[in-house]
Structure formats: structure tokens, C-alpha cells
Specification:
With about 120 residues, the protein is an all-alpha fold. Helix 1 runs antiparallel to helix 2. The N and C termini lie far apart (about 90 Å).
Length: about 120
């Protein structure tokens, strides 16, 4: 648990405990409620200082690990294992333009198909 959160959660019980002690001292005629207000201010100040000190210190349980499984320290982002094959580059779609070399290949393929169609029709005459 975070130190700051722990101190923050103990604030209410600390004031309740101080109120109980003040009530006990009032019953014993040692300290009246009208004279106990500085105790509440002191408690509020001590808790505020403790919260601030806990808030300034980093919580080690909340820190990310320095290394991740499968990567060496200092290499970020982690590299994929060598056994993984590189993904093939996808062909262009109507939404995404293709690379220039793919366009040239597809144009030559169309021309080859057109030539074969012409040859087939002429050869059949």
C-alpha cells in the first residue's frame, strides 16, 4: 500500500483518538475542551507533514521493473526473437496506395494477359 494513502486513511482515526483522550482529560478535570484546540492543530500539522513527506518519496511497489522478460537492460523496445519470421509486406488496396514497384508489376501483368488474349483470338481465326 502507498505510504501517502496509509497516512491519509489514518487521519480520521487519529482525530477520533485525540477526541477520546481530550474527553477523558475533561472528565478528570485536567484539560477542558476549550483549552484543547491547540492539540487538534498540532495533530493536523503533524499529519500534513507526514503526508507531504510520504508523497514526495516514490513508492517502490509502484515502480516498473528495470528489465522485462526477454530483453537485456538498456535495449528498448524489446526485440522479437530471431525465430520469428518477418511479416510479408501487404499489397496495396483501394484505400492504401501500393508501392511504385508493385504498380509496375501489375501493369506488366495486365499487358501480358492482354497479349495472351489477343494471341488466343488471333490464333483461333
Amino acid at each position: 500500500m502507498n505510504r501517502w494513502l496509509l497516512i491519509r486513511r489514518l487521519r480520521g482515526p487519529a482525530f477520533l483518538l485525540l477526541f477520546g483522550i481530550t474527553a477523558l482529560l475533561h472528565v478528570w478535570n485536567i484539560l477542558s475542551f476549550s483549552q484543547s484546540w491547540p492539540l487538534y492543530l498540532v495533530l493536523a500539522g503533524v499529519l500534513s507533514l507526514a503526508e507531504r513527506a510520504a508523497f514526495q518519496q516514490p513508492d517502490p511497489s509502484q515502480m516498473p521493473p528495470s528489465t522485462y522478460p526477454g530483453n537485456s537492460p538498456g535495449s528498448y523496445p524489446p526485440q522479437p526473437p530471431a525465430s520469428w519470421a518477418a511479416a510479408p509486406s501487404p499489397a496495396g488496396t483501394a484505400m492504401v496506395p501500393s508501392a511504385a514497384s508493385e504498380i509496375e508489376r501489375s501493369d506488366t501483368a495486365r499487358n501480358d494477359i492482354a497479349r495472351s488474349d489477343v494471341e488466343r483470338t488471333e490464333g483461333g481465326r
